[in-house]
Amino acid sequence: MTQSAPSAAQANKSATPPPKEAMDAFRRDIDAVKKEVGKVIVGNDEIVDGVLIAMIAGGHVLLEGVPGLGKTMLVRTLARALDLTFSRVQFTPDLMPADILGTTVLVEEGGQKRFDFQRGPVFAHMILADEINRATPKTQSALLEAMQEGSVTVGKQTYKLEQPFFVLATQNPLEMEGTYPLPEAQLDRFFFKLHVDFPDREELHAILDRTTGTDNAEVRPVMTRQRILELRWLAREVSVARHVQDFAIRVLQATHPDGPGRPEMVKQFVRFGSSPRGVQSILMASKIRALMDGRFAPSEDDVKATAIPALRHRVNMNFEGEAEGIRSDKVLEKVLETVQKASK
Fold first, then answer.
1. Last residue of some domain: 225, 250, 268?
2. 192, 184, 208: which is closest to 284 by C-alpha?
3. Average of pLDDT values for 124-136?
4. Which pTM value belongs to this model?
5. pLDDT in tens, 247-272
6. Is the model more confident about 2 or about 320?
7. CA distances, 289 to each of 98, 159, 213 (Å)
8. Residue 237, class by beta-carbon neighbours within 10 Å (0-12 exposed, 13-18 middle, 19+ buried)?
9. DSSP label at 63?
10. Do 31 and 6 belong to one domain?
11. What is the C-alpha to C-alpha distance for residues 95 and 104, in angstroms, rounded to an integer?
12. Smaller CB count within 10 Å for the chain: N or C?
């Protein structure tokens, strides 16, 4: 497994608690971003937190929810608050890789002809890949390669993508006909999978008040691109206690049917559990969550809070689990409960 950033184990060996001033600045900056996003986005605090955690960690997010819940608005608003470039790609069956990455065209200038690369929408800081499962596997893989490698190869030329580079891909859980589900190995490239719930009555009132009146909230930039990269490395400096890291490892192992400490539900309904990327995501998310809460180090509660979004797309149900309609969230809740009991 290739990782461009230091592994969690390597980071822990040299990690030192960040100075209190740096931690306070981290929390203050994140709160400022959330305040700006809150001018436009109603509710969905967990989704906003999850997206910010994944972006600071250098990961990407798979967002699942029915149309009309503000997924596009969330990414566009975040891009404004973070002063980042934004592009949206609507995935369709006839979308080609060149429509995302760009293509080389013949240009005539001053009586001379030359080949010029026209960059596609992937060359932005924040990408909304709308309904990614509607495109063919060939097109999906083009975007997922850019997500993993941070670069685009067209012909013999490789172009680096400017950091931070963040992809938020959406899936519609209602319409599955004519779709191309992402393979497990490609799902594993996403840091988090987040579920967008339907708003309650009060949130619907707030949405209507903001969208059917004359008020037009103006979102201002409150963070720079360089500051995001600084926060990313600050999060890596957070140390993790050995027992917390061990708790995360035991959660990962318990997602496997033959893993130590797994509950009976895993043995019965799971075909295979999460890869090591799952526990890497849990630890990085726990570090960032601790900083957002004003703490120097993550706890087991941080692991429990981040485990489900980090693992739900990495745990694959077997035939019996699919037939019974068992969701990975339910399995992971049982895993966390079992591992927590074993720790006492």
1. 225
2. 192
3. 87
4. 0.85
5. 999 999 999 999 888 888 988 999 98
6. 320
7. 37, 33, 36
8. middle
9. E
10. no
11. 17
12. C
Q: Judge whether residue 3 has pLDDT over 80.
A: no
Is 145 among the domain residues? yes
Distances (CA, A) of 155 to 106, 115, 137: 14, 12, 19
C-alpha to C-alpha distance for 253 and 53, rounded to whole angstroms? 24
CATH of the domain at 139: 3.40.50.300
Q: Tens digit of pLDDT for each residue in 212-242?
A: 766 677 788 888 888 999 999 899 888 899 9
DSSP string, 225-246: HHHHHHHHHHHHT----HHHHH
Helix runs in the chain, H state only:
8-14, 20-38, 45-57, 71-81, 97-101, 137-149, 184-187, 201-211, 225-236, 242-253, 264-269, 276-292, 300-311, 319-324, 328-343
Cis amide leading into 298 (omega within 30): no
Neighbouring C-beta atoms of residue 172, cutoff 10 Å = 15
Domain boundary, last residue among 186, 203, 225: 225
Q: What is the DSSP string of 240-283?
A: --HHHHHHHHHHHHTTSTTSTT--HHHHHHEEE---HHHHHHHH
Give residue 192's identity as a one-letter amino acid code.
Answer: F
Burial of 120 (0-12, 13-18, 19+ CB in 10 A): buried
Tell me how many degrees the CA angle 275-184-10 measures, rounded to the nearest 5. 25
Q: Domain range holding 303?
A: 1-17+237-344
Residue with tokens 């399995």: 331
Residue 323: both structure tokens together? 């037939």
Region of poorest pLDDT, from 36-40, 158-162, 297-301: 36-40
Nearest residue to 138 via CA among 96, 185, 104 = 96
